[in-house]
Amino acid sequence: MAASSRAQVLDLYRAMLRESKRFSAYNYRTYAIRRIRDAFRENKNVKDPVQIQALMNKARRDLGLIRRQVHIGQIYSTDKLIIENPEKPRT
Q: What is the pTM of this model?
């Protein structure tokens, strides 16, 4: 993979993770982050430039989808789950 292509892939990876961390719903947030990491790890050994470009285009579409879903989630936000509000242990 060329250095510029590698940099583009890493920028896209970081952008997707950053955007996914903005999900207000805990389950969506953890699923999206886990799925992004798994997908990039699964395809890290791809060498074919045509396949790399196809994967990059798919990731860009997915980034747009994540951004739309984050926005919708912010409009229709819900209360945080108990797992997201850790209380101090009582002693």
A: 0.80
